[in-house]
Amino acid sequence: MSRKLSRKQLLIAGGAAGAAAAVGGGIVHESSSAPATARADTQTLPPAVPFHGTHQAGILTPQQSDLRFASFDFIGSGKDDLHDLLRTWTTAAATLVAGRSLGAAKEDPARPPSDTGEATGLAPARLTLTFGLGPTLFDKVGLGSKKPPQLADIPHFPFDELDPNQSNGDLCVQACADDPQVAFHAIRALARTGFGVTALRWIQSGFLSSPVGGGTKRNLMGFKDGTANPSTSDDAMMKSNVWAASGDGQDWMANGSYLVSRKVQIHIEVWDSSAESEQEGVFGRHKLSGAPFGGTSEFSPVDIKDLPTRAHIRRANPRRGEVTERQRILRRGYNFDEGLEAGFTESVAGLFFLAYQRDPRAQFVPIQARLAAQDRLNEYIQHVSSAVWAVLPGIRKPDEYLGQTLFEA
Amino acid sequence: MSRKLSRKQLLIAGGAAGAAAAVGGGIVHESSSAPATARADTQTLPPAVPFHGTHQAGILTPQQSDLRFASFDFIGSGKDDLHDLLRTWTTAAATLVAGRSLGAAKEDPARPPSDTGEATGLAPARLTLTFGLGPTLFDKVGLGSKKPPQLADIPHFPFDELDPNQSNGDLCVQACADDPQVAFHAIRALARTGFGVTALRWIQSGFLSSPVGGGTKRNLMGFKDGTANPSTSDDAMMKSNVWAASGDGQDWMANGSYLVSRKVQIHIEVWDSSAESEQEGVFGRHKLSGAPFGGTSEFSPVDIKDLPTRAHIRRANPRRGEVTERQRILRRGYNFDEGLEAGFTESVAGLFFLAYQRDPRAQFVPIQARLAAQDRLNEYIQHVSSAVWAVLPGIRKPDEYLGQTLFEA
After folding, report:
1. Helix, strand or coil for residue A356?
2. Sign of CA dihedral B119, B124, B125, B127
3. I need a surface site. Which of A38, A95, B41, B223 has the fewest CB within 10 A?
4. Low-confidence residues of chain B: pLDDT under 50
5. Contact present, A361 and A152 (Cβ < 8 Å)
6. What letter does residue A125 receive in the DSSP assignment?
7. pLDDT digit string (tens) for A4-24?
8. Termini Cα distance of chain A
9. Which A-chain residues 325-354 have CB contacts (< 8 A) with chain B?
């Protein structure tokens, strides 16, 4: 056990909360009396990702290998419950990303363990937990006047076949880690600590595999995905296209961001029987190298004239100078694979698209409108879920909590 | 690209097969004319797991982090189609586990790519592909007289609620790798190369996370799982309890094994609201340390007298000397997590139990009969799928194929 770990520790009696919630409130409160239980000796491992900062982690953080994305319904009774929930989640999240257990060293054996235990002994695994609020939450808790205009509902697009059971929600948590069990544990822990005030609505898993030596990762269509993604080290671009700013409509969202999540199923079997030339024409890129048509390598400049009119990368970004530069979004999606549709032989697999941006009305929506209208890729994919989230500003100090600016606005 | 890779390469025109199968046979034949396309420079990575050996890899191989387990229906027309399928799969599997693409350096762009491409650039990731035959296959292909008696149907147990869509099958492939995309790609590739002769029936994903510094992994109930598993380096135990031998009934199975697969769902929310003392009593072990009741550490000897009568580890192995020693099985299961049941708030998560053994009739069946009758764990779990497989003997040389002893018997 590392001795470097902070002694300040939360007793998040999540299990006890689960039991107590049937009777009482369900929101669990802090205690600093219990010592930290380290999950693992972290000295030889990649360091835990810092939880505090101007922005939440999990947006510019280099993508981890595993995702569990959870949407929650808020079932509490108002603003105070939301406030308590966000305080509780903040403390729990700081503990989890540090690779520590929510359990105390000594617990009452007559109560459920505070920590479910499946991550005990595992590394922090670069866990990030990124929290967002859905459009439906604000009116529910009497904060309708604080709802950001950027959080307008995503319009229905042609070909959308959205499953309400996998769409929308009042709150979201994006858990990313280099270990699926660590991400799973984090969502389970947050669901337990929020018991009685929130209820899980849907969870999406995903994975992403890194090529040897690095470079752009491939999606399940076999193509490099993310070549044209803006660089997270381009501060000016992050400022203009990703981060919400004061004056954008709701100042409390400054340094937050807006996230659009879309589950995009691939018709794997249809795709797999299409010709290589067809597949490359659909994207406008060569499959192996990732080079755009007319280019020689992955990062060759894209010349619109070399691309078929309905090629995916042309529709996604028709390169009309400043107009389309301002639409660029920061994609952070994950591949998913859920076996076969029960009783059928078709694969349920695809891309769980996640994109951070400053204003979906001016970025995701016009991009998706172009794609829905004419993208050749539409023959091979199906959007089956959609949601939009106000991703909270980061917090800089341990005595702050996520969403504090909303409550103080 | 490593120059060490063999030039001998199969053109498994899986994509072409997919297209051609609508017209013709669907079994793809070999060609040695195309050069190997290396997936990645493998020189700095863990070496690929050898494909050839007395036994198939993926049984004694230290468990990889990710599983894709596929069950297939055989839809070919008889013994010859099965023979061709096993030859094709053997060649494809040897290529895949070496970390190589099924594609040739130059392919006809008017045809579907031979390799779907999502593993291009990825490491071999210790991929193993382990092939088995289901009880229903033998009569289907006119080989009923070759069916091993060990492959008897698993009886129905109390509390079983088996989903036929997730149970049984004519053929299975267990793909394990330290990268989910590599395992996914392998199953997809094998499904494509078998197109027209086999059809996917169900696929199960799983994962397993390694504690820092090694040691027994934890399941999603938070308990160490596998403490009492026999050591894979105990040759005598592997011989007596895992490997089929000449004289066991069907000599062609010598050096093969029998695999029982069971999908065991955990009622996560119920478990999470049970007391720590209850959880520990259910297993008969302490949660954090893994020590059995009455013991001080994980590997303390188990004394039956210290265990509650219905404790899981007592029911699983009541330690009656030689009788129960001969029942011991080699477990190689994976945790799974499939989000929430659609439209509900219950998690779909648990353990995909995989156990290798010499004779399920004398090992898994009596163990499970004891558990189904009295195991306290039954209150928290549900078996939802079941299958039994004759896992083929290994092949020692590149000119042999999996299942060869069956055809030559």
Report:
1. strand
2. positive
3. B41
4. 1-38, 41-42
5. yes
6. T
7. 322 222 223 333 333 333 333
8. 42
9. 335, 337-340, 342-343, 345, 347, 349
